[in-house]
Design brief:
With 415 residues, the chain is of the alpha/beta class. It has two domains: 5-182, Rossmann fold, CATH 3.40.50.1950; 192-414, Rossmann fold (3-Layer(aba) Sandwich). Helices cover 34% and strands 25% of the residues. The protein is built from 13 helices and 19 strands. Helix 1 (16-28) packs parallel to helix 2, helix 4 (88-95) packs across helix 7 and helix 9 (217-228) packs across helix 13. The mean pLDDT is 88. Its EC number is 4.1.1.36, 6.3.2.5. GO terms for molecular function: FMN binding; metal ion binding; phosphopantothenate--cysteine ligase activity; phosphopantothenoylcysteine decarboxylase activity. Residues 6-170 form the Flavoprotein domain.
Amino acid sequence: MPVASVVLGVSAGIAVYKSCELLRLFTESGHDVRVVPTRDALRFVGEPTWAALSGNPVTTEVWESVHEVPHVRIGQRADLVVVAPATADVLAKAAHGLAGDLLTNTLLTARCPVVFAPAMHTEMWEHPATRANVATLRARGAVVIEPAVGRLTGADTGPGRLPDPAEIFEICRRVLVRGVLAGRALDLAGRHVVISAGGTREVIDPVRFIGNRSSGLQGYALARTAVARGAEVTLVSANVALPDPAGVKVVRVESARELREAVLDAAGVGPDGADAVVMAAAVADFRPDRRSDTKIKKSSAEPDPIRLVKNPDVLAELGSLRRDALERGGREPYPRVIVGFAAETDDVLANGRAKLARKGCDLLVVNQVGEGLGFGTPDNAAVVLRADGGAVEIQRGPKEDLADVVWDLVAERLS
């Protein structure tokens, strides 16, 4: 990622203390950060803290250092503006073009990617006025991250919590890679995408299960990169020990049948369905035909064999449902794009092409797995097979880079 000039806008909310960690992540990555707080934000964390952590002067007013024209220059020179936390008040001012302080002036003059990380009480986040302001900002090309669900001020709990600073940073990192610095737009803005991640588990008894080695890293990378490109993201997560990506609705499941139900519910079929479904999870092909309600004890006798039965084929079912909807007279099938993943140990491309033909998906990401390959590693390599017979090879690199190539191909089909 190139070194960038970043403006960190900070508005007045109890979550301001978390923005100190976000600032540290930016500066330790080599970025030059200018903190622009609102006047009331300094009631939570003072100017000396921001100045010391950023190494740059801090002010809330347009009337300081007037000869440098800060209300124009700060926004003009920025490669990224991120507002975290973004209160309902700041979102409203940004949506309506108000410019009463240095932060709102900066938002008006910035011509770079802008990311808002809202934090407020649930009632404020769900109010029609706030939802309309968020829709306006997104329509103008800003990334507005969905807040996390959790403990708020006092005893309240619900959507409105500031996402983890490390996850906000990851979204900003991908925005920088794909934003103005790379000459790319938010090509998934207004799209709803569903992603499955991780590995399913099939219960044998209360302490044992049949599982696989999938860590969920690739699916979570797909989710982060989709948010950074403006998408609304639902992530069906199977047994993953990773923090929730910022701005993503996470649905947790365990078994293949639970994953099927969650994916079909989120994806839908018809005009209200998802624009794209990416099945990156490693779904168990088989499950025990019955489970023991008590732990199976070890004895001197050989254990009874475990009889396996087939699990539902979620990817094939998605393709079949879409095909049936189209045959019934639908003008356009939903989900519009279906992407499968194939983890293979041998005859990778041959097995991949056979799977593509069986499943009815538009794209199939085929990668070789084994010791040090695919599962649990930070990098990946793959070949994306297309239903039209084409293929795109992705060289080994970070899983986020592979995710961006997948979304490039999805966006191409959606457009």
